[in-house]
Request: fold
Amino acid sequence: MAQPPISRGFRGRKPPVQSDRIPPGQHLVHDFPVLSAGPTPHAPLSEWSFSLDQGGKALKEWSWEEFNALPQTRLKTDIHCVTTWSKLDTQWRGVSIDDLLKAAGLAEPPGDFTMAHCDGDYTTNVPVDDLAGGKGMVATHFEGEPLAPEHGGPARLLVPHLYFWKSAKWIRTLEFLDSDEPGFWEQLGYHIYGDPWQEQRYAGD
Ligand SMILES: Nc1nc2c(c(=O)[nH]1)N[C@H]1C(S)=C(S)[C@@H](COP(=O)(O)O)O[C@H]1N2
Ligand SMILES: [Mo]
Reply:
């Protein structure tokens, strides 16, 4: 049966794809774009370590072996890149910031803010409240496989409720700070906090 033209566009269209999960200005992708400000580092696992730092000193440091022996957290979550792609239901495994603090013997986080430091000199700042309470992890696995080098392997920060530039790839140190300081992209004009639901893309948004 002939349909009036107005319904034709709707018939051919997929149902509005869970638009309550796509923040303003974002669109859904099914691939996994790679966005890196520099080359992919390839540090051998025998030389890899992860540390919680404060004032230039390590509060606790783990080797790759020790890190993988820590309690594992699984997380299924949506991610949102400031370049406007969003990806739904990504699955991650790693160590939660809560478990890292516990394993370091820290009853309280030693500062209200953090700076993630990575192989290749990338940095990004995240408030402790956005990492603790099950909100952030250091991820080593994606979709059941070891995290690919171009996506941050062996380990990346994962803070899925903020724009994905906060999820620092190749993280090696989480530094605790008393005040919020801008990281790499934040110094170049990106928003200091980066909430995708508020479209906090650039400073002043
Ligand atoms: N170390 C490091 N981490 C990084 C970046 C980077 O250039 N270096 N890019 C950020 C940006 S802008 C985004 S959108 C995501 C991209 O992650 P992906 O390449 O796994 O998609 O990583 C973030 N973490
Ligand atoms: Mo990004």
Q: What stands out?
A: Residues 32-37, 81, 118, 120, 122, 151-152, 164-165, 167-170 surround MTE (ligand 1) (CB under 6 Å). The mean pLDDT is 94.
